[in-house]
Sequence to fold (97 residues):
Amino acid sequence: MPHKPNPELIDDEAPEATEEWFAKAHPAKDVLSGLVGDAAAKEMLKPKRGRPPVAQTKEHVNIRLDADIVQSFRRTGAGWQTRLNDALRDWLRSHAS
Fold:
């Protein structure tokens, strides 16, 4: 049984892609330079690998902490190392000389 589309979600400006639309479609590398120019197309089509560079990188360190401290932060879920970093930063601010 075909799925009946929700009429509230139908967008006339961005209709559903059909087989006919796909048959007429062309790869971006073939049409992009005509739309935005050669230089912009070359930049847009350049493969981007990995994470974007950050202004201030983190430094990898090995540190020994009490098990209960680490467990408490780990229990807070994903991002616990960032929260530990933030706690250390707060301590530095409150103890600045």
Remarks:
- The chain has two domains: 9-45, 62-97.
- The first helix runs from residue 19 to 24.
- The chain has five helices and no strands.
- Residues 32 and 41 are 6 Å apart (CA to CA).
